[in-house]
Design goal:
There is one protein chain. The chain has one domain. A hairpin with a 2-residue loop joins β9 and β10. The chain has seven helices and twelve strands. Strands 6, 7, 8, 9, 10 and 12 form a six-stranded mixed beta sheet that branches.
Length: 232
């Protein structure tokens, strides 16, 4: 069961407390790194299926850049802050690296010295949060419970896989989510988070799914100290 529009507007989808803040669909630090000094005088222009050339005069405050699935202050700050920081650190490293291409090896142990496993778990959980926001906002028929529990307990979502690669063709932003069902139940879902030269394929896959997109993907239970990049 999905909450009504009224309930979604006031309750945090993670913990159920009163909510008032929307999560950026693309992390604000990524947007600031790619589009510095955005203002009313130097705006961005957002394209969606519903509207093109939507003027964005502030990365921080523009509601068009944020999910309508709201979070409470605690969940959007203290609880998930380590997840945000982990992705910010990896994203910054990838964007600043030179000569990245398909097959390039990223030494994760240098990005998260002494805490490689925890660092990549936190990256995973950042995308659990973004995916959960999309499920709630778009009323996608995927069980939100495991997303909530992963975030609240700080553990990996068993069915969430991530593949990171070099972006050669897509514009910055989030792609539409594609969903495949089996026997009337969601079996596989995929979407892209694209920040400049970096693209992240975020996938939900039920056990025994063998999809092309899963090749080269990782889960916190399988990631090592090295990450091989794909190309999109």
């Amino acid at each position: 069961m999905f909450p009504s529009a009224r309930e979604k507007s006031v309750q945090c989808w993670i913990c159920g407390k009163s909510a008032s803040s929307g999560e950026h669909k693309l992390k604000a630090s990524d947007l600031r790194a790619l589009f510095s000094n955005v203002s009313q005088q130097r705006p961005l222009f957002l394209h969606t299926q519903a509207k093109r050339n939507l003027r964005i005069g502030s990365i921080k405050s523009s509601q068009a850049l944020k999910s309508r699935a709201l979070l409470c202050h605690d969940c959007n700050t203290s609880l998930t802050a380590p997840y945000d920081r982990a992705w910010e650190k990896l994203s910054k490293h990838l964007r600043s690296a030179r000569g990245l291409r398909k097959g390039s090896i990223v030494k994760i142990s240098k990005i998260y010295p002494g805490c490689t496993k925890q660092g990549m778990l936190n990256v995973h959980l950042y995308f659990v949060k973004i995916f959960g926001c999309a499920i709630q906002e778009q009323e996608i028929p995927i069980d939100i419970g495991p997303f909530q529990q992963a975030i609240l307990k700080g553990v990996a979502h068993p069915n969430l896989q991530i593949a990171i690669g070099v972006n050669k063709s897509m514009a910055t932003g989030n792609s539409d989510l594609e969903l495949a069902s089996l026997n009337g139940k969601p079996a596989f879902a995929t979407w892209f988070y694209v920040a400049g030269s970096i693209a992240v394929n975020v996938m939900y896959a039920e056990p025994n799914e063998r999809r092309q997109g899963l090749i080269g993907s990782w889960h916190p239970s399988t990631i090592s100290k090295r990450l091989a990049l794909l190309e999109y």
